Amino acid sequence: MPSNVLIDTNIWHFAFVSPREERFEDIHTKAGGVLEEILSNRGVRIVLSAYQVGEILEILRRSGVDPEIREGLLKDFKSGKFFVKDLTWSVAESAIADSSKSNIHVYDYLVAYPVKGLIDRIYSADDHFLHEHFAFAEVVNPVAPWVLREGIKPFKQD
User: What percentage of the chain reaches a pLDDT higher than 90?
Assistant: First the structure.
């Protein structure tokens, strides 16, 4: 039985775009490396929420990634390497409620909550995933010591 993992949007983003600043080159290299490793590992299946599919493709669009690459990625998401889970109303309600309690933006919840119970590992550099609400899966930061949070520049955490 394959291992099921979630790869957070920030890893997809840094794997697909070029560094804007030389000091962030390490993040891009590490993100691309882990993504390539997971994609080539037959024993690992990537699980995404339908919400996350849209989020990944929108972030890549805004970052100037070619439409052909984004369309190819969408096609790949339909292959057996991936499993895409729909976002239900009850999961959205739970995500909104827990986001209000934790003050972590709802987008992290909309990425992870639909796949709760399906995954055993989350690859993310966003330290929000270390919150107890996401304790249903092991969290691995593949670009450590870098931390990536939406809306702020990457920073190193020792």
Answer: 89
Going through the chain in order, the beta strands assigned E by DSSP cover 3-7, 44-49, 82-85, 121-123, 138-140, 146-147, 155-156
Q: Is a pLDDT exceeding 60 seen at residue 1?
A: no
CA distance linking residue 44 with residue 65, whole number of Å? 26
Question: Look-up: residue for tokens 């827990």?
Answer: 98
Domain count, the chain: 1
Angular region, 7: left φ>0, alpha ψ -120 to 50, beta rest: beta
Q: In terms of DSSP bridges, do strands 146-147 and 82-85 run parallel, antiparallel, or are they unpaired?
A: unpaired
**What is the domain-level CATH number for residue 9?**
3.40.50.1010
Q: Domain range for residue 22?
A: 3-156
Tell the burial category of 116 from Cβ atoms under 10 Å away from its Cβ (0-12, 13-18, 19+): middle
Q: pLDDT tens digit string along 132-158?
A: 999 999 999 999 999 998 888 888 987
Residues in the chain: 158
For residue 124, CA distances in Å to 14, 30, 84, 129 come to 11, 12, 18, 7
Return the pLDDT at 20.
Answer: 86
